[in-house]
Amino acid sequence: MVAVLALLAPLLILDRVSGKDQNCLLQLVTEPHEPHGGVESCTPLLNQGSFFSVQLCVGTPKQCFDVVADTGSDSVIVPSCICSETPGSGCTLGEKCFRGTNRSATFSISDKFNAVQITFGSGTIEAAVASESVEVGSLHARMEDGVLLMVNRAALRISGMFQGILGLGIPKDEQAMYLLQQTLTASTRHDSMDKSVDPMVKSVICVVFPELCGGVGQSPWDVDPSWQTASIPTYSRHGSDGHRVAHEDAPKKQFESKLFLKNAKVQRFSMCFRDQNLTGALRLNPAPLQEPIKNIGTLHWGMDFQGMSIGQRGEQAPAETIFCGPETQRPGMDTPCGIIPDSGTTQILGPQAQVRALEAGICQRWPRCRAAAKGQPSSEKVFQLLLEDCSGWLTKENGLLELPSLFFHVKDANGRRSAFELTAWAWVTEMGVADQPGRKICTSNFGVMEYQTQKNGPVWIFGTPLFYEYDVGYDLSTKMMALQKGKCEPCPSSAGMSLTHGSTTNPSWPRAAHGKPRVPYLDVNLPL
Fold this sequence. Notes:
By secondary structure, the protein is an alpha+beta fold. Helix content is about 15%, strand content about 30%. It has helices spanning about 1-10, 80-85, 175-180, 200-210, 260-265, 350-365, 365-370, 380-390, 425, 465-470, and strands at about 40-45, 50-60, 65-70, 75-80, 110, 115-120, 125-135, 140-150, 165, 185, 235-240, 245, 270, 280-285, 305-310, 335-340, 350, 405-410, 415-420, 430-435, 435-445, 445-450, 450-455, 455-460, 470-475, 480-485, 510. Strands 15, 16, 17, 18, 19, 22, 23 and 24 form an 8-stranded mixed β-sheet that branches. A hairpin with a 2-residue loop joins strand 7 and strand 8. Helix 1 (about 1-10) packs across helix 4 (about 200-210) and helix 6 packs across helix 8 (about 380-390). The protein is globular, with a radius of gyration of 24 Å. The two termini are about 45 Å apart.
């Protein structure tokens, strides 16, 4: 207990003031105006390698964080100083963290909920539910019981910086909430969420946030003393953002994620990325979507995937598809396949059989690969080996331009079938070899994820490659999307100049890969 009190001393006594935010110069937004029914603003997105982050500020005075801008999540999550000042919690002393008590005039910790656990593709975090003022760009909102303060990330397997999440997921209607409620199931003491929460972490939480605890010496994980265990959730469900949320024993109220965008009265937003460490752009309340795409998702943003074809770069999309064509739609299905456009996922993910068919199809339409694959039993393996050996054939003049493009077909809002191109620059990346200085290898940004649905067939995740190639728009009121081809324009400064002076992107040269790919956590037993 002495160790715990020593840890609490800086939490309760010190009023540590963070140094000047290194990213403050990047927080340049357009002059707010309301031509489209809401305040319009543009906020830079920072390239963190495997994902892009946006500056999100919490509290009064503001405490700012570079959080993942994630269309696959609903929650606002920031790290609590409890995490960085508690050994074994997975955070490091000195990391940027949020301090509410005795620091923010607008902070309150909820007494309606126990602590929650949320599982992502990279692992699980534990968080307390709080109410706070939240700001993104020039927009701000009061989030009542809508800010999750991360107190333990020891089980989170993510390389590099992780300062939280700004959830940009689809608004959930009654049908979505009903589906989510159906996943509420009784657990046992051997539930898969039982990760044996560190007792020291629990003690710290209960002293700093007594509202979360049921009484003296009792933590959110210790409501029923007859169980003789301190880390077993009684119920588990998936949060409205599709992440698994475990509510501890006898929660006072069931927690539901809250969208910042809804609280800030945002009707639309768009996102696009740039490479070579240049900033992308998150535009809030931009102009109405042009040529909107039909949404088929209930729990996720979802496109009606009508087939994948492979053809020459910059030319018309071939009508022939290699999978997910209209002819594959069986009776009782609404669509042949589905696509989730997810800004928080690094790769393009799909069923293994279709990913292998895609690689084989690319090889057959890439002259270099087709020649190398003659007599070989597996053309997709030849494709992978050729990419790995890219240092032997890449040139600044031609390079990736010799590879074919992918064309994915989706239905627009009027039911018309439209094709969109993904050039090799979007889905091929290069990286160094640890024990071979100077050597580079290339790889495709394709990965495997099995997500089969009854109504929408196999579901694909289109991650960052889509956002490098398109400005992806979302409308929260109509729940439609749009893909705008062209250069990603950075946010203008107050003087009307570009934050960075244009992109030096070379479409013939692959983008550099940094860190481990960020993967989504989805309950593949739920519908799209």
